[in-house]
């Protein structure tokens, strides 16, 4: 008989990221036989009644979680966020001008890719401050007649987040707002009155890599460029209930289990996404407050736009980075190395990261500072 295993390490990976243990345990239990069907989810036909039930519940639960209005379609697609950087302009640009608000690496990639299919106009950028502050919407240079305005509502690498989505109508634009919410989907509510389309890869907050979720308003369907592949045409995908081609069945199943888990979460009188948002606020505050109170660690992002999900931080002495990471691994704190383009450290504290994990990280950081400051 093997010795009992200790608790799992805390995984701070930016993505693919940690998933709720309860979700992993349920998936393991159903791996060989989903609910008495005699098949695992990866083995069943995507057009069979079994998977049809999985897909229908996943969509219904996501609609409940994010309060998605009925005039929006939920599409389960493939290609990830990077794929959507092409798929969105192929569907929405009409080959004309698209405005981009560049706030970090991911929105930079979005603008660069869209240039292949339309005129990508940078309406605002925070490159001059190293992507540490968000450009004031009052100063955005929005185009007349733009097909849409694109922004990344949470930049995973630089750690900046829109705490409130812009009201484009108040800025004098009639263009729909497109948001890449890959890295904070289901961590907070979405104001759908201000959004025309939202997309995100699942691998940061809701499931395994391979699934991409698109939530698109009905009036934005049916405008794809002629060169748009049929499998990526939103109208075709919507008309076929995400089943035009074989969808990422396992990813949808795992996301569905995560949605169920999220709906079960409570924090006081709060439930679902509201409960998760309260937890995420508390986790982020704990970590940022410690960093701000330390002379050994620093975070460069302006307080008003700090990400709740991705916290980059730096040691006063870069020469101690490797020692910090080695000690963290020994303490069961994984994947804390910052992105290569930024350096330093990064703690991604998505929905699946419990408060205890952030407490353990802060405790380790405090002890490392005591030993090395």
Radius of gyration: 21 Å
If helices are DSSP runs of H or I spanning 4 or more residues, what is the number of helices?
A: 9
How far the N terminus sits from the C terminus, by CA atoms, comes to: 45 Å
CATH level 1 class label of the largest domain? Alpha Beta
Order of helices and strands: EHHEHEHEEEEEEEHHEEHEEHEEH
Gross CATH architecture of the largest domain: 3-Layer(aba) Sandwich
Which fold name fills CATH's third level, the topology of the largest domain?
Aspartate Aminotransferase, domain 2
Average pLDDT, to the nearest integer?
A: 96
| Poorly predicted sequence stretches spanning 5 or more consecutive residues | none
Sheet with the most strands, sense and barrel status: 7 strands, mixed
Count every beta strand, where a strand is a DSSP E run of 2 or more residues: 16
Strand order of the largest sheet: 2-10-9-8-5-3-4
Strand content: 15-25%
Content-based structural category:
alpha/beta
Please, how many domains? 2
- At the fourth CATH level, what is the homologous superfamily of the largest domain? Type I PLP-dependent aspartate aminotransferase-like (Major domain)
The residue fraction in helices comes out at 25-40%
Anisotropy-based shape:
globular
């Amino acid at each position: 008989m093997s010795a009992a295993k200790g608790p799992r390490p805390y995984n701070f990976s930016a993505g693919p990221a940690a998933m709720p243990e309860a979700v992993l345990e349920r998936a393991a239990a159903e791996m060989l036989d989903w609910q008495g069907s005699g098949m695992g989810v990866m083995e069943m036909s995507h057009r069979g009644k079994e998977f049809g039930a999985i897909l229908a519940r996943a969509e219904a639960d996501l609609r409940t979680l994010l309060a998605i209005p009925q005039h929006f379609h939920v599409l389960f697609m493939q290609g990830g966020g990077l794929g959507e950087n092409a798929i969105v302009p192929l569907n929405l640009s009409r080959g004309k001008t698209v405005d981009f608000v560049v706030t970090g690496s991911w929105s930079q990639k979005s603008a660069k890719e869209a240039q292949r299919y339309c005129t990508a106009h940078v309406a605002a950028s925070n490159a001059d401050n190293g992507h540490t502050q968000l450009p004031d919407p009052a100063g955005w240079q929005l185009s007349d007649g733009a097909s849409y305005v694109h922004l990344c509502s949470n930049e995973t690498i630089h750690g900046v987040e829109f705490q409130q989505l812009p009201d484009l109508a108040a800025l004098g634009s009639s263009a729909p707002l497109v948001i890449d919410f890959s890295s904070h989907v289901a961590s907070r509510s979405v104001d759908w009155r201000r959004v025309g389309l939202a997309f995100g890869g699942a691998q940061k907050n809701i499931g395994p890599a391979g699934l991409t979720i698109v939530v698109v308003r009905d009036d934005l369907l049916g405008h794809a460029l002629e060169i748009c592949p049929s499998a990526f045409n939103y109208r075709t995908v919507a008309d076929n209930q995400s089943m035009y081609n074989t969808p990422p069945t396992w990813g949808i199943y795992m996301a569905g289990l995560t949605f169920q888990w999220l709906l079960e979460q409570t924090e006081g009188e709060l439930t679902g996404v509201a409960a998760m948002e309260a937890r995420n606020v508390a986790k982020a505050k704990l970590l940022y407050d410690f960093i701000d109170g330390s002379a050994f660690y620093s975070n460069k992002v302006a307080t008003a736009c700090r990400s709740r999900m991705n916290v980059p931080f730096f040691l006063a002495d870069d020469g101690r980075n490797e020692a910090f990471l080695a000690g963290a691994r020994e303490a069961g704190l994984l994947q804390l190395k910052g992105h290569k383009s930024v350096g330093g450290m990064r703690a991604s504290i998505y929905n699946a990261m419990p408060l205890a994990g952030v407490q353990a990280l802060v405790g380790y950081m405090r002890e490392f500072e005591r030993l090395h400051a």
